[in-house]
Predict the structure.
Amino acid sequence: MDKRIKRAKINALSTLLAQLVSTAVGVVIPWIMIAHFGSEAYGATTSIASFLAYISLFEGGIGRVARGALYKPLALGDEEQISRIYLAIKRFFSIIGVAFMGYTLILAVFYYDIADVTVFDRKYVFALVLVIALSKFAEYMWGISNVTLLNAHQRQYVVNVVAMLSNILNLLAITLLVTAGSGILWVKLASSMVFLLKPFLFTIYIKRHYHIRKTKTRAVLKNKTTGIAQHVAYVLQNSTASLILTVCADLKYVAVYSVYHLVIFSLRNIVTAFTGGMEALFGDMIAQEEHEQLKGTYEKYKLLLTVLVIAFFGTAAILIVPFVMLYTKGVADANYEQPLFAILVVMAEALNCLIWPCFNLTIAGNRLRESQAGAYGEAIITIAVSLALVFWNPLLGVAIGALAGALFKCIFYTAFSGKKILRSSVTHLMINTVVVGVVMVLISVVGMAVIKNFNLYNYYRWIIAGICTFPIVTGIGLLTGSLLYPASLKNVVNNLFSK
């Protein structure tokens, strides 16, 4: 047990460091791109990446299914079964990689007309799509199968180290090329070439640390489609807004959405990084039928996430608009001041983070098939609401769609995991979630009203505002967490004092 907890802590720390690096790099790169190439050009690259992400729908959630299938043989040290599952994953994603090549060529031909691009000509757009797709193709052919095995075996720290290295090299490459006056096509080509390094390093690590035996047996993952609903919902959650804005609105709206989404997505990654590797720990506990330990670990997980969600997303709700206005200062080709849109997308992402433990439990407990109704419901609601409202107001339409989908997801997975896996009171779990939601709304409304009285016209004043805001909001998070999970808090405090 101590070894598993130690690995979970190492994974969490490495994930946090990786996400901090990713956030820092992710904030700098769009600023460089928008400043040098304009909102429409940056919006085009973001939109192309979102369109390319839709090929992953064909993955059918096989990664989640594979992780669920790997937990038991990894816990038992069954190398034969591990090899069979690994090779099945590799074969599957090689096929997806070939399909991805075909999809990329079709998108390259038609994207110019779909997005009504004005900043580039047709040939340039064709080449841009191919260049952006390059690193994703390498992931399918050589990367995803290795990452799946490493994550299931609580070796997420390996993935994180490689990710940090790639992100730093990517920033250096982009900065040098932009400074040298290179076009956006060459900048994206250099970025793709850097990320080709990742699957190469993963392959070396797997060969050195795992005894993968070749086998002719193919019937390993009998229920390949059990994770398709959850996978569809995940892809739509991250890509639908850009697609709908591209088709139904304008690429400048895509740029505005992408800047806000960049900040919020980075916060989500940082928050979930604190609990990195917990899915693998849950899976090991479920495989060994350690129910009481599972419930205790889940409660601590929720306590930590409650505090983090309120602290980070509460602060973001207050300060994100001033930050974006400073970030895009001097950019006049799009309106980046969108306070209501900001609040809605912050709330949606906060709910997605808050429900993360319940979603992890469905994967760890291999309950993807039973919970697929929730994933399909989330996808349908997100798309339907977004399409219904996008012509009324493009940005608010997709934001309300995202929030509606997140609310449904939160209700469904809380009820499902509480009843089917934790065997806890669903009402109690629901009340805790509602309390956090109410606290977030109050923080957002009051905080935005207060911050209007301050003129945050430079980064120095914004940082001072953040230094003052974050401790207050964190204190509210700690108070909320202590009221909702007093036993877990007591246990954590006792462990700290005993050490």
Notes: The mean pLDDT is 81.
